[in-house]
Amino acid sequence: DEECAEVLKALTFGFQEYASKSGFKKFLVALSGGMDSALVLAIVKLGLKPGQSVEAIYMPSVFSSPVSTELSEMMCKSLGIPLSY
Questions:
Q1: pLDDT in tens, 39-57
Q2: What does the pLDDT look like over 10-33, one tens digit per residue?
């Protein structure tokens, strides 16, 4: 959908502007197994430029579902992102 593509382009642009101005080349995203952190990880991954990398760390909350670990692992595997616990 064209509107979603435009929003994604704006989000990745904003992410890269901040990263560029701050001199960041490596990124760490905390995953809880929920939709919010999964979306952030996907946006960062899609917005990476050559020489940049992203890693994820699993940080569930007391409200996280038992399946959250599995979902986080599946997402990182499918995106080729290292996951730490």
A1: 999 999 999 999 999 999 9
A2: 999 999 999 999 999 999 999 988
Q: Which of 34, 78, 85 is nearest to 57 (CA)?
A: 85
Which two three-digit tokens encode residue 28? 């760490």
Asked if residues 36 and 2 have their Cβ atoms less than 8 Å apart, the reply is: no
Q: Measured between alpha carbons, how far is residue 16 from residues 7, 13, 52, 65, 83 in Å?
A: 14, 5, 10, 32, 22
Please tell me whether the overall predicted TM-score, pTM, comes out greater than 0.85 for this model.
yes
* Coil vs helix vs strand at 31: strand
Q: Mapping DSSP to helix (H, G, I), strand (E, B) and coil, where does residue 82 land?
A: coil
